[in-house]
Amino acid sequence: MAITKLMHMKECPEWKPQHLYNAIHYILDEEKTKEIWIGGNAGVECQEVFENFMETKRFWNKEEGRQGYHFVISFSPGEVDENKCFEVAEEFCSRYLGDRYDYVFAVHNDKDHIHAHVIFNSVSRIDGLKYYYADGDWEKEIQPITDQICKEHGLSPLQFEEERIGVSYASWAAEKKGKINWSHIIRADVDLAIERAASMEEFTEIMNRLGYTLRFGYSQKREENYITFSFQKEDGTICRRRSYNLAPGYSVEEIARKIRMKNLDPVYQPGNEEVEPFHRKLEKQFSEKAGSILKQSAVLKATKTYKRLYQAVSYYKLPNPYAVPAYQVRRDMLRLDRLIEECSYLRLKNLRSVNAIEKRSQELEQQLKQTYIKRKGIREIQEIYLKSVLPDDVDRYETLLQMLEEKIEVDAAYEAAEDELKELETHLPYQFRENSKKLLECEREIEILKKEKRILDRVNSTERGEEKIITLEHTRTIRR
Prior knowledge:
Elements: E1 3-9, H1 18-27, E2 38-40, H2 46-59, E3 68-74, H3 82-96, E4 103-108, E5 115-121, H4 137-152, E6 159-164, H5 169-173, H6 182-196, H7 200-209, E7 212-219, E8 224-232, E9 238-242, H8 252-264, H9 278-296, H10 304-314, H11 326-334, H12 336-349, H13 354-386, H14 391-406, H15 412-425, H16 430-463, E10 466-470, E11 475-479
Parallel strand pairs: 1-6
Antiparallel strand pairs: 1-3, 2-4, 3-5, 4-5, 7-8, 8-9, 10-11
């Protein structure tokens, strides 16, 4: 089934069109395509296409903000050849973009599925207006075109995937890993036990040592044997998963077969025949996320926070993982991003001891107190000017300030808000405007300080050996 994705390239802080240039360079890479599979109205070479895009932007004085858009039209393996894919991409560009926008497209056959990339300028070369995609535009404007093209070529209709918002081209190109959950951890622990066990009895024993209780049963409804893996958390709650709910390949019979095959063939490793063992996948994923911070934070090796990060990342490589607190290390796997954030913070602030952490905590408290006092003073002055300003104008002005503050890129919505803000400012008192901006700065500073305080509180709890565990009945503090 054919798939279409639409992405955008925002400006880069160092050099505004960097992401646009990277994207054009990528789709015209000679290792991925050939000149005969490149088309468009802006040229066929990277520099030529890029210069034509930029010339349009300069002519209309629209060099800032969103730089361009990127369509990917992807077909199922065997559904089309290069020529057919080229024809579809060419017709799509001609009918949808026409002469209004600079564009280039290229067919890639470096994957199992042949696909076409289309990159077009964010600025119209006819009237200088910026391209704007809104919810519903696919169904109203684009899908009728793609459906007709696919019908003419005897292909299945294109399906649209949601636009990826607010990321650079480089960020999109790197596949993001999925969030870890308890099912992932149980699968990883099962694969670790399979790797170390010589029999089902030993598999059960290893899972027990890893903190699990196993119960074997038979499902009348599914007509199959199963294992219930139970893990008791520190707050007393129990996490349970049945083997048939984990993933394909985790039935009782599959687990027994993997153990048997491993013992029969000394060269055999679990998963060689089909997939890599899941605990090795998690191990790689953890290393990719936290490897650099572990290397950079060598000065923090004496801290408990660093130790917990190391154990979570390296758990499946440890010679004796049973010696590590079972629930703590698995909870840290689930919250790996938090631990990375905490270690990064300790390194940034050079906090190597409990005393240093406590000192920083006191400094934060004082900064927060001073900022609250400063905000209160500005609010009291602002009350005087509020009497001469319409309430609706006050609300709208503060909303626009906040909106522009939170925007991560310059686009059509940003430009519209900026124009409205300038219009409002023409009849609002100068001091009111200045106080509003100062209040927004105070709020931003308070949020930054509060976030740092939250990180510091978590670190402090770890370093002092105290953690708050919330149960259904009460809150208690446990000491390790």
